[in-house]
Amino acid sequence: MKNQKKKFNIFDMNRDGKGVKKEDVITTPDLKGFFSSYKRKFGRLLSVNILMVLGNFPFIFAVIAFAGYFNHVSTTATSHIFPLLHGIGLHENSPVLAALNGIFGIQVELSVFSLTSYIFLGLSSLILFTFGPVNVGTTYILRNMVKGEPVFLWSDFWYAIKRNIKQGIIMGFLDLLFMAVIAYDIVFFYYNIGPAFFNIMYYVSLALAVIYFFMRFYIYIMIVTFDLSLFKIIKNAFIFSIIGFKRNIMAAIGIGILMYINYLILLYVMPVGIMLPFVLTLSNGAFMSCYAAYFKIKEIMIDPYQSEAEPEVKPVFTDRG
């Protein structure tokens, strides 16, 4: 019974966090320190992944809508000549007409959104109000893991959301908007490659995607750590995406390897590969990005002010804890 209880304790969101151990405090934030911390925190990352998935439940409505379970299904011809042949067939039949129907009368299934599908699609828009706050709550937990502080999953999650609810919702909306626009630009310019302008814009879009990918490492950490406006947070994230390039690249490589492993498992063991993002992949990738970003933020924005000789001087950046 004891072993069974221990086996399922990753799902206990009310379980108290462990006290800080000496080995939990990372003094040298290098690759060795990452693997040491990752090994000790792996069990808690599974719980964080569950928070990420359950918190963004509106995404499930979008999956249901686009899966087509409630769509109106009919058939249609693939050729615009078919209506003409059909009209002729109402008056006469001939071997030639039958041959033409065999070529131009091929039918394909046509699936159209029903009212129920649109309702599910509308419910999925709730992601605009959950995406940012969930990122804020889970980032606060991951940041504390990286710092080596004790973690109380459920209470820490809601504590961070309550303190940053306004910025979380606004940043979540902007985050989804930026990612959608960048993705659209990449696809649009890719399919219009040829003229010099479209070629240039395609590579510009790729560069923006890389930069914003790195910026996301820092945005939510700064929201839960500093009392700054969103404009300054986005501006600082852009600066960190450049000056923290080495750590960003290492995190990107780690996330890429993680995604590739998930893809291989999906190819060879499909049920397991489908389930991995719901239990493992999301939080593990987020932990890598948080580990890369936090210590760079600490080096530039926290340490210089903590070491000031005059404590009465108010620091530019207020640490929210």
Q: What would you call the shape?
A: elongated
Number of strands: 2
Structural classification: mainly alpha
Q: In which range does the helix fraction lie?
A: over 70%
* Computed Rg: 26 Å
Order of strands across the main sheet: 1-2
Q: Residue-averaged pLDDT, rounded?
A: 85
Taking the sheet with the most strands, its summary is: 2 strands, antiparallel
> What is the rounded distance between the termini?
38 Å
Write up this protein.
With 321 residues, this protein is mainly alpha-helical. It has one domain. The chain is built from 13 helices and 2 strands, in the order H-H-H-E-H-H-E-H-H-H-H-H-H-H-H. The protein has helices at residues 2-7, 31-55, 58-67, 82-89, 95-104, 115-124, 127-147, 153-163, 165-190, 196-225, 230-243, 245-268, 270-306, and strands at 72-77, 107-112. It has a two-stranded antiparallel sheet. Helix 12 packs antiparallel against helix 13. The radius of gyration is 26 Å and the shape is elongated.
Describe how the helices and strands are arranged.
Layout: H1 2-7, H2 31-55, H3 58-67, E1 72-77, H4 82-89, H5 95-104, E2 107-112, H6 115-124, H7 127-147, H8 153-163, H9 165-190, H10 196-225, H11 230-243, H12 245-268, H13 270-306
Antiparallel strand pairs: 1-2
Helix pairs in contact: 2-7, 2-13, 3-6, 4-5, 7-8, 7-9, 7-10, 7-13, 9-10, 10-11, 10-13, 12-13
How would you sum up this structure in a few lines?
The protein is mainly α.
